[in-house]
Amino acid sequence: MKEKQVTPELAREHGLSPEEFGTVLAILGRTPSLTELGIFSVMWSEHCSYKSSRIHLRKFPTKGPRVLQGPGENAGIVDIGDGLAVVFKMESHNHPSFIEPYQGAATGVGGILRDVFTMGARPIASLNSLRFGRPDHPRTRYLVSGVVSGIAGYGNCIGVPTVGGEVSFDECYDGNILVNAFTLGVVRHERIWLGTAAGVGNPVIYVGSKTGRDGIHGATMASGEFDEKSEEKRPTVQVGDPFTEKLLLEACLELMRTDAIVGIQDMGAAGLTSSSFEMASRGGTGFLMDLDLVPQREEGMTPYELMLSESQERMLIVAKKGREGEVREIFEKWDLDVSVIGEVTGDGIGRVRWRGKTVAEIPIAALTDKAPVYDRPAERPEGQDALQRLDPAGLPAPSDLGETWVRLMGGPELSDRKWVYRQYDHMIRTNTLVLPGSDAAVLRVKGTRKGIALSVDCNSRYCYLDPFVGGMIAVCEAARNVACSGAEPIGLSDCLNFGNPEKPEVMWQFRSAIEGMAMACVALGVPVVSGNVSFYNETKGKGIHPTPAVAMVGLLEDASKRRVQWFSADGDLVLLAGADRLGVHLGGSLYLKEIHGQVAGTPPPVDLAHEKRLEEFLREAASADLVASAHDLAEGGFACALAESCISGPGSAMGARVLNPYPEATRPDFAMFSECQGAVLLSCAPAKRDALLDLAGRFRITIKELGVVGGEYVDIEGLARVGAAEFRTAWSEGFAAALGLEG
Amino acid sequence: MKTAVLVFPGSNCDHDAYHALKYVIGVDAEFVWHKRSSLDGFDAVVIPGGFTYGDYLRTGAMAKLSPVMGAVRRFAEGGGPVIGICNGFQILLEAGLLPGAMIVNDSLRFVCDYVHLRAGTDRTPFTRGIPEGTILKIPVAHYQGNYFADERTLSSLEERDQVVFRYCDPEGEVTRESNPNGSARNIAGICNEGGNVLGMMPHPERCAEEVLGSADGRRLFDAMVAWLGEKST
User: Fold this and answer.
1) Which residue has the higher pLDDT, A320 or A217?
2) Which pLDDT band, with edges at 50, 70 and 90, does B34 fall under?
3) How many CB atoms lie within 10 A of CB B16?
4) Which residues fall within 8 angstroms of residue A386, CB to CB, at 6 or more apart?
5) Which of A144, A209, B63, B103 counts the highest number of beta carbons within 10 A?
6) CATH class for the region spanning B2-232
7) Which residue among A241, A242, A427 places its CB closest to the CB of B141?
8) A93 catalytic residue (yes or no)
9) pLDDT tens for residues B91-141?
10) Three-state secondary structure call for residue A179
11) Arithmetic mean of pLDDT over chain A
């Protein structure tokens, strides 16, 4: 077979710009082979090179006393004391999931799990952040069912609980859904492994599944826009095999208990190419690899295909010379392929051989150092001012506030997510202390008293209206949720989902959101330790709302101090911490969207200093056992937070009778559904009241006593009253009903 | 007193069973790799949940061929206590140590949730001291837990006192609504004629500590320890 001649035209088809192709020619001093072109194309794709985002990502704080590993490795690592650390990362699998929802989502989970266990950690929990088009869009139901069952199919089989997440709907995702998967693992400090290739002469070992033709050019696909022909890209979606990954997980962890290896990395996007070049780049070495030794599932695969395949469940290991036997023994025990395919060299060149010929010979430092970096033009969109205009007084007042309240609680955004999380095994490994359904999930760390709290958040309407403030809010909300559970936020991972970065408006959204997030991270003292950027979330030229999803990790020194969002006892007092944060803020609110059909205005203001004090107050209140529950006011405002605290617990629905929290509002609907940042609904036993008020005073948090838990109604005096049971029914049935799914 | 926790490729509740036995109940527990062909020295056997061989064929259909299953058969024939949980139950069915088969949940979806069980016979080593009619709160997590057998087998199970658990509502009523998977006659767990081999879909190892939401599962392991204690004296 004659190999295709590489031309500028072919390079363009591979997503390389003429300038980029020029750099390739300069680096090599000759025309690349087809295999080399493929390697440059994937390594310099947006997905792998972060060429449009890198200069902005540097604005994130990434260091801190607890940070053991920041961005740049397979996942971030944060110390939790007692010689233990948590390893975590979030990653997107948006494009494949839109094309093939089950496999796209499943392999998204598989990929993020590998990123975590490749560092030596045993994964103990997963989260996901999902965005779909409007519920009545003809494709939405199919996509929701497929994505949820794909996540379940993979996570349940490998035996890592999916303990929380978010599901949200908006027409901006009609043609471009978001599937962001997060996994956290626990590791002892001395068992941490990095993806590095060091030690000239050390063997390079391939383990795991055989290589097939699946997923070739997945990374490039994920770096381009969608059009009508996207369905034709289905063959580039990989197929997951969670059973093999389970074997790979156990085999890798078994191997890591020995000291036979030097470095290890999973073959994710861009497969064998990215793992080998990245490991050698980190190690400052080179390698020689013989593709004929790669275990193959199909016959006649070309070197181009072997290097670019994204077949799942594979790892690349650099072992110590002479210890190959130990590696082989462990992987063979687990019925996995294992093959020494090459060795580490000292000349800084990545050399790939196939059928006795050299098919690629690339200087590694040049490939990584000369990778394109763009400071793309950014410009505030012309329509942004018009978008931010909103006159609340002009909105028609609802005739029945109770009915409006029920509609929001039973609507697609706020309704119970049990239909989703019931399909996820959320209890396996017996660490889940707070099951899905509260502001944050809480897991214990066996063998310690510690707990880990997890929450993932992003209000993309806020980000659309004001990406800077929206970015701040994404960080603050996630941190607040974790603080409500009683934990201290210790680090975050993000998934930055945006449109086409070559458009100045999108770049402006991206830059602004990052700057807002970074500012909040600095103020709250939370480092960004890992994450991922997903650009080109556009179909037919229409971009999504900017959606920087934030996964926050919190630490409880004593897991018995955890708190939930729901009321637990009749007679408990209901209080609002941060009561002075209320106001008439309808911009970007759920009420405005669902009831009035508008996305406009500006997001509610944020006070970062207040946010920090509020978090500390919440932790102190939990650890001193002063509060029974804590739930932050978010979408749907005060009224919906109150209803959630009444009905979202595992017992029967509870009532509450409270005062209007914001009598200054000009209209009752504004008092009920205005959104704000920095207010938290609390409940406490009457005996704890004085101490709680005192504590709030010490942290300079305005706290208002509003009423008491009990009765059959959720009652905001003078505004609206709805039966708790009626709420429970609307809320429990709302999700399936909105999507036309069977309950 | 030593319990074996079997480990097949794809077992994933093995650590949970081990944790419950060793650190909650406090009995000696040891992982046993599926390629071992002897269970000498063990007093009880736990076949944990998971997705052995990915469940790519019928659940349990591959695992039953592992060498350790020959040893389980001999262990059971000798009257030793064996409990198969979830995928472990499915393996016991495929191995013919218990009658019937599993099909996909009637919802066609995976289900992970707390359910209530009504205890049937108390003659197994795992239910001794749990009187018939006791209500237990225990989670399920499966895709194929819809127990199926022909009418004759089902009636025979009832006649021979082999029904150990049925799904029920919180008040103990065995209703259609309380059945999470469509299983025949709400069956959640059965035993062999001898009573020493128990298979159940719900996960007692996941609810052996109050901190996890229920400690009802602990009662099965406590019963096993008591039974073994009596036997050894």
Assistant:
1) A320
2) very high
3) 23
4) none
5) B63
6) alpha beta
7) A427
8) yes
9) 999 999 999 999 999 999 999 999 999 999 999 999 999 999 999 999 999
10) strand
11) 95
Check CB contact under 8 Å for A430 and B53. Answer: no
- The alpha carbons of chain A give a radius of gyration, in whole angstroms, of 26
B207 to chain A: closest CA residue: A430
B215 CB burial (10 A radius; 0-12, 13-18, 19+): middle
Its pTM stands at 0.95
pLDDT digits (tens, 9 = 90+) for A624-640: 999 999 999 999 999 99
Q: Helix, strand, coil proportions of chain A in percent (round to 5)?
A: 40, 25, 35
Domain boundaries, chain B: 2-232
| ipTM rounded to 2 decimals | 0.97
Test A242 with B213 for CB contact under 8 angstroms: no
pLDDT in tens, B202-227: 999 999 999 999 999 999 999 999 99
Contacts with A177 (C-beta within 8 Å, 6 or more apart), sequence order: A94, A97, A98, A101, A130, A131, A132, A133, A143, A147
Which of B106, B112, B116 is most worth mutating to test chain A (most A CB atoms within 10 A of its CB)?
A: B112
Nearest chain B Cα distance for residue A257, angstroms: 17
Q: SS in 3 state form for A528-569?
A: EEEEEEECCCEECCEECCCEEEEEEEEEECCHHHCCECCCCC
Q: Which helix (H) or strand (E) holds A67?
A: strand A67-69
Where residue B60 falls among pLDDT bands split at 50, 70, 90? very high
Question: Read out DSSP for A95-157?
Answer: HHHHHSHHHHHHHHHHHHHHHHHTTTPEEEEEEEEEEES-TTSTTHHHHHHHHHHHHHHHHHH
